[in-house]
TrEMBL record:
Mg(2+) binds at D183. Can also use Mn(2+) ion. This is Isocitrate lyase. It catalyses: D-threo-isocitrate = glyoxylate + succinate. PANTHER family: BIFUNCTIONAL GLYOXYLATE CYCLE PROTEIN, ISOCITRATE LYASE/MALATE SYNTHASE. GO terms for biological process: carboxylic acid metabolic process.
Length: 530
């Protein structure tokens, strides 16, 4: 924020030459400009794209420099997350926001709660990006407003040391605005629809867009059954559409995450177009399940036949008209998807898996890196995984392979609380704790995210409050379970009037009306109790 004094000087010059009748104060002008650093969503997208590119380069040089995010379904949740990061960790470096299509569907649709199947309004995705950045910019304005009031108090007290300290805080201010990785699902239609929505998302501030290779009108959550993929040509057209949107809007270093659901997707809606043996279409078709035929006698009415692997194949087709892939071909299809996406404009990969297993992820990434050495992933540390059971079973299996005595454990019942204090459970928790660092080092994961954690935290905290408040604790449930903890943990939101902007409003009223301003922060404001 070293431009603060420059902005004061510029405003002074302007007022002297043009605004002697305006009745404005140059320092107030500079303060308002500092509190509104990002004028448009495109300003944010360009700023955060550069940050993300720097972080990607840092990870390439040192895999301990991975990045993280949590999914947020409301601007307030995103704001509080960044305020907490600055308070506890002092820096936002390497910490992003994730915009989850799952949570948009479940929590932000005008239809009400929906499954993650691209049935929600596409405009709600861009609207949430704008909302998140509105709240992050407000967090900037609120924190800077506190510094400005402290600066005035130091000047009034004649405390030069304190004035210099606060001025340094202003000059070195770190914004709450960080990159958002934004989920565009499967593009919400054809490639033109994808392009139009991508533009809206970028204009709202998105520097990074994640798109998946499912059929857009039959899209399923990555952790549900019934996923249907599209041929590579269809997916690459949408990747290009997103790139064109970035370039048209001047976000030249925008980031595209290509997600493949092929590991769990056993169906395709189309047989790919192929022009010659070995091309992408031919490779896609080579994974189709079916029967090889020798003559027309083997073909029934309505059957489809395609030449694949040098032979005539009659693909297995379901009553829905969808075609099946061969069982066990998922990992090979994932590797082909990832290599193809990186060779045609994507920057990062997302492999949706059925469990959090470093070895499984590394096995696929190592194959991809044989072709593209700097391939790296965004990985979903999904709440759809039972992390406790998965890692306890991983430890159980490792111990079994090592010949250890496991008679005290029932592998199928390891979720039970009876095991919580056992050596196996402690080792499993250690592996969960180090999972992100281990996977960043061993499996090429640049960015770790949790898609919908705040969906679960909202439900859990509400359950705890409701249980006590409507039970025998009454008001004590709120006081002991919420407010007392807020006060003792220094949660800024305990002064909710301040968080909602009342002090900023008072500042502006004073700028506009001087001594005549009717301010909210007087002695009778109950916020003074905190």
């Amino acid at each position: 924020m070293a431009t603060y004094q420059n902005d004061i000087d510029t405003a002074n010059s302007l007022i002297e030459t043009q605004g002697q009748t305006w009745g404005v104060n140059a320092e107030n002008v500079a303060r308002m400009k500092a509190q509104n650093r990002f004028k448009t969503g495109l300003d944010i997208a360009r700023y955060t794209a550069a940050i993300m590119r720097q972080d990607m380069a840092a990870y390439d040089a040192d895999p301990t420099q991975y990045t993280q995010s949590l999914g947020c379904w409301h601007g307030f949740i995103g704001q509080q997350k960044l305020i907490a990061i600055k308070k506890h960790l002092e820096s936002t470096k390497g910490r992003y926001l994730y915009l989850s299509g799952w949570m948009v569907a479940a929590l932000r649709s005008e239809f009400g709660p929906l499954p993650d199947q691209s049935m929600h309004e596409k405009t709600s995705v861009a609207a949430l990006i704008e909302e998140l950045y509105t709240f992050l910019r407000q967090a900037d304005a609120r924190e800077l407003g506190g510094y400005f009031r402290a600066l005035d108090a130091a000047r009034e007290a004649g405390d030069k040391a304190k004035e210099a300290e606060v001025q340094a805080q202003i000059d070195n201010f770190q914004t709450h605005v960080v990159p958002i990785i934004a989920d565009i699902d499967a593009g919400f239609g054809n490639e033109e629809a994808t392009y139009l929505l991508a533009k809206k998302m970028i204009e709202a501030g998105a520097c990074c867009i994640q798109i998946e290779n499912q059929v857009s009108d039959e899209k399923q959550c990555g952790h549900q059954d019934g996923k249907v993929t599209v041929p590579h040509a269809d997916f690459l057209a949408k990747i290009r559409a997103v790139r064109y949107a970035f370039l048209e809007l001047g976000v030249d270093d925008g980031v595209i995450v290509a997600r493949t659901d092929s590991l769990g997707a056993g169906l395709t809606k189309q047989i790919a177009v192929t022009n010659e043996p070995g091309d992408l279409g031919d490779q896609y078709n080579s994974y189709l399940d079916g029967e090889y035929v020798e003559s027309a006698d083997d073909i029934a009415n309505g059957d489809v036949v395609v030449k694949a692997n040098g032979k005539l194949l009659k693909p297995s087709r379901l009553a829905s008209g969808l075609f099946q892939f061969r069982k066990g071909s998922g990992e090979d299809r994932v590797v082909l998807d990832c290599i193809t996406s990186l060779q045609h404009g994507a920057d990062l990969l997302w492999i949706e898996t059925e469990k959090p297993h470093v070895g499984q992820i590394a096995g696929m990434v190592n194959r991809i890196r044989e072709v593209i050495p700097n391939a790296k992933l965004v990985y979903n540390n999904s709440p759809s995984f039972n992390w406790t059971l998965n890692f306890r079973q991983q430890v159980f299996d490792a111990w079994e392979a090592a010949g250890r005595d496991l008679s005290a454990y029932d592998r199928t019942n390891l979720m039970s609380a009876q095991y919580d204090d056992t050596e196996l459970a402690v080792e499993a928790d250690d592996k969960i704790r180090s999972f992100q660092a281990d996977a960043a080092r061993e499996a090429g994961i640049f960015h770790h995210l949790i898609t919908l954690p705040t969906y679960h935290t909202a439900a859990l905290s509400t359950d705890n409050l409701a249980k006590g408040y409507f039970g025998d604790q009454g008001m004590l449930a709120y006081v002991s379970g919420v407010q007392r903890k807020e006060i003792r943990q220094g949660i800024a939101c305990v002064r909710h009037q301040n968080m909602a902007g009342s002090d900023m409003g008072d500042d502006h009223k004073e700028y506009f009306s001087g001594d005549a301003a009717l301010k909210a922060a007087g002695k009778d404001n109950t916020m003074n109790q905190f």
